[in-house]
Amino acid sequence: MILTPKAYGMVAEFDTPAGLLAAARKVRDAGFTRWDTYSPFPVHGMNEAMRLGNSPVGWFSLIFGMGAFSNVLGLVWYANYYDYPTMVGGKPLFSAVCAFTPSYILFVMGASVGTLIGMLALNRLPQLYHPLLKNARFAKASHDKFFLVIEASDPKFSENETRRLLAAAGSGNIELAEE
Fold first, then answer.
1. Would the pTM of this model clear 0.85, i.e. be above it?
2. What are the residue boundaries of the structural domains of the chain, listed by start?
3. CA-only gyration radius of the chain, Å
């Protein structure tokens, strides 16, 4: 039995960021939903062209930061008011003003950890294998070329029609990437 490789998607190469941006708009207007762009630097306007909203990484940062803040505040309350109450000079056993500084420091640290975890989770990293890495020309995505990839799992994907669309968008080289 001979196994034929399964198609991952159609890879289109562009020479300029403007060409990639125009192609992204055409792909979006054609109704594709499972596609992405790759470039050696950020292309201004690509978020709008791909209809990408705000990143949810900020929510990870807020949740982790608030969790760290409340945990440290609770720990200070527990240690000073409940576990080992010591009256010193008539001062209150627990003061939110005194507990704010360590709580704030841990808020910043928790938000940093939340940002890292959110970024890794949403980017599905670490990813030890990706089918595009088998494509020899795709290595130029980190140097001087711009790529648009339409995945074969997209409901509108048809090899011939997708190739025509990418050719009409001005791609210089179009290849089928395999799993």
1. no
2. 7-53+126-178, 57-122
3. 25
